[in-house]
Amino acid sequence: MIENHLSLLLVVLPLLAAPIVAVLPNGRLPWAVSTLVSWSVFYLAAWQLMNVNTGNVISYELGGWAPPWGIEYRIDAANALVALIVSGIAALTLPYALKSVIKEIPQQQHALFYAAFMLCLTGLLGIAQTGDIFNLFVFLEISSLSSYALISLGKKRQALTAAYQYLIMGTIGATFFIIGVGLLYAMTGTLNMADLAQRLPELYEHRTIHTAFAFIMVGFALKLALFPLHVWLPNAYTYAPTVVTIFLAATATKVAVYVMLRMVFTVFSFTFIESTPADELFLLLCVMGILGMSFYAIYQKDSKRLLAYSSVAQIGYMMLGIGLGSVLGATATLVHLFNHALMKGALFMAIGALVYRVGSSRLEHFSGLGKQMPWTFAAIVIGGLSLIGVPGTAGFISKWYLVLAAIEQQNWLIVGVILIGSLLAVIYVWKIVEVLYFKATGEMEQHNTAVKEAPLMMLIPMWVLVLANVYFGFNTELTVGTAQQAVQLLIPGVNK
Amino acid sequence: MDMILGHYNYWMVIIIMMAGFYTVISRGNLVKKIVGLNIFQVSVFLLYISIGNVKDGATPIIEKGVDLYSNPLPHVLILTAIVVGVATTALGLALVVRIKEAYGTIEEDDIHNQDQSL
Amino acid sequence: MKHNLILRVVSKFLIPLIILFALYVQFHGDFGPGGGFQAGVIFSAAIILYGLVFGLDKAKRVITPYVLRLLASLGVLIYAGTGAATILLGGNFLQYGVLASSQLAGQHLGILVIELGVGMTVMSVMLIIFFTFAERGQAVLNSKIESERE
After folding, report:
1. CB distance C91 to A8 below 8 Å
2. Judging by beta carbons within 10 Å of its beta carbon (0-12, 13-18, 19+), is residue A107 exposed, middle or buried?
3. Best residue in A119, A136, A140, A161 to probe B by mutation, most B CBs within 10 Å?
4. Is the peptide bond before A68 cis (omega within 30 degrees of 0)?
5. Nearest chain A Cα distance for residue B1, angstroms
6. Cross-chain residue pair C80–A15, CB shorter than 8 Å
7. pLDDT of residue C93
8. Phi, psi (degrees; rounded to nearest 5) at A59
9. What DSSP designation does A155 have?
10. Average pLDDT per run of 10 along chain A, which is 496 residues long?
11. Please, which of A191, A347, A399, C76 could form a disulfide with A383 given CB 3.0 to 4.6 Å?
């Protein structure tokens, strides 16, 4: 029976957990319940991926109303892959959260913190699962509202302004999105994505459709922090509590990239995109984003902010695949989406462990910690190598596919940008490594010599992700295989 | 002329939308920004509700002798969007209250200066 | 707030009517315009009015914040629980038809229960928002008065 309702339970389980967690007494109980739920959701997501990996499409009708009238959850390999990465990161973040949350968040807010976390998970999984474009907006707002609240829980007062800034920009983005959806609905009379895809082609000439497309793209570009609409992201990631940064960095923008893929390739088609200036614009913004934000990252003095700028640059890579608009490009986007979640998850967890011991995320406070915390240091090195894209790590696979996609179109500029971007990544990763290992402990940080290795509860999830980075650098069956499956369904008419 | 009068609902929506959007962008006061955001959202509600109207259609409640109804779906969608809007406003205002307590001001420039001077 | 006789009398007269109207909107929602969202807001308006006229502390004695938190959670649980019940009875999530013997009766029952959950959550969340904001202001005000006294 569970198998029939798999795709729904993925969303409903965390939704059910949220109110229960909210009324539990503060202490370990809320954490235990959320961890249990996130692990069962991960299990369900893996099960779901197994079911659709063969090329099946699962359709679940909410309330038994047949699509396109009712809300439909339509699961293919792309959804399942995104749901797997979201739930996987949640399942790893929560064990890590226990100690970090106790240290960073006041005791009386623990139950509410985990409730908001569960709501955020509900929203992100909902976005991944749903096949209804308005339902997607509702889930988007569920995840956004809870992430604003989560970010504002940061210790410093700048967390409040960061959350406020994100709230304003996020809401504008979401509102742009529903304007676009409204226009699409006015033209086609349907909200189901698959149905939209069938009805839109005959209206491609219509100006309203172009307007709707523009609104949806700008709205989601805001949500996924595409350069130059990224200004909310560095602040939000820097000042949010560590656990929230890990979770959001590894999942929130990835889900938005997935929606972009879905919109560009399924709802609209790439032939439509080519008739608009959108594809060239994407490429231009991505190139500027990759180069500009990598440079920015080099000059940061705060480790979390450094990684946040690097995230904006990495989002540029993901959008490059969409801008190239080929099968290889879309595959590269999906693979990089998965791999980037792994590497940023691992890196932010490692930084989080340093913050846990030192109490600050500024680079200068980390000097000499590499010797005291060898496991955390090693995690940063491997995660960093993956971020750069060294062969043998997951990052290499996705960059490889991206370069292939660019070469396929003879777009040497893009190839060059990807390579320069990787070189810049070497510099900013080196900056962290240098401080950690090669800088002597200064006078300011004398107490660093007394710092011990991070607790085991943090090391284990961190190393699971680190090892996943290495594993997916060699075994690409899950990532590339699924992505190729997904792209076949994403782009109708592709038979390879 | 027909372009203007025939589509008056869209013109209204555009005017309200731009008024709200401009307020969000131009004002430095955090509460005014949220007011602007609300106006911006309301314009979208109007857009949806006005496209749901069917010419000569009755209120969508089943009654004998009526067979042309307005489309109720946009109303339902917007009910959801309104609830989302309320939640956003409440959260935004709550953040403003916290910012006021932490910084002693709700002017963007002052907050920026305080953060810079640290 | 000691005098304001008219306000007190009028609101005492109005509050039951508002609550009655909220209940009408709640339970007539499946036949006419209405439903949980609207009813919840109207219901909370009655208590907010009470709080405005008679003071926050008295309003909190009517419904304590802890009860509100429970109610808000319970509402969501009723909603999701109905969905779970329809799954257990062999339907899809929120397929109300399976709840009762006939399709029509099931639809009626389902939507009533769902809207009850929605109404509860909306009512309590609106009140939580009101109480939280009002309380915060009062705390600041009290501390100001204290500091002025010193």
Report:
1. no
2. exposed
3. A161
4. yes
5. 20
6. yes
7. 82
8. -120, 125
9. S
10. 81 91 87 92 91 81 80 87 92 90 86 93 93 92 94 90 93 94 90 88 87 92 88 90 92 91 87 83 90 90 90 91 86 91 92 86 80 87 90 89 89 89 90 81 58 82 90 85 82 54
11. A347
| Nearest Cβ partner for A171 among B77, B88, B115 | B88
d(CA A7, CA A38): 15
Fold of the domain spanning B2-117: Helix Hairpins (1.10.287)
Chain C, nearest residue to B96 by Cα? C133
| Distance separating alpha carbons of residues A482 and B32, to the nearest angstrom | 47
CB atoms closer than 10 angstroms to residue C84: 17
φ/ψ (deg, to 5) at A74 = -120, 110
> Tokens in use for A327?
């099968």
Question: How many Cα atoms occupy the beta-carbon half-sphere of A366 within 13 Å?
Answer: 29
Cβ proximity of A36 and A13 under 8 Å: no
Q: C98-109 burial, b if ≥16 CB within 10 A, otherwise e?
A: bbeeeeeebbbb
Which residue type occupies A148? Y
Interface residue B10 vs chain A (CB under 8 A): no
Whether A36 contacts chain C with CB within 8 A:
no
Number of Cβ within 10 Å of residue B28's Cβ equals 13
CA-angle at A315, arms to A314 and A321, nearest 5°: 100
The predicted complex's ipTM stands at: 0.93
* Cβ-based neighbour number of residue A478 at 10 Å: 15
Q: Angle at Cα A138 formed by Cα B69 and Cα A141, nearest 5°?
A: 140
What is the distance in angstroms between the Cα of A109 and the nearest Cα belonging to chain B?
Answer: 15
pTM: 0.93
Please state, as a whole number, how many other Cβ atoms lie within 10 Å of the Cβ of residue A326. Answer: 18
Taking CA atoms, C136 is separated from C132, C141, C143, in Å, by: 6, 9, 11
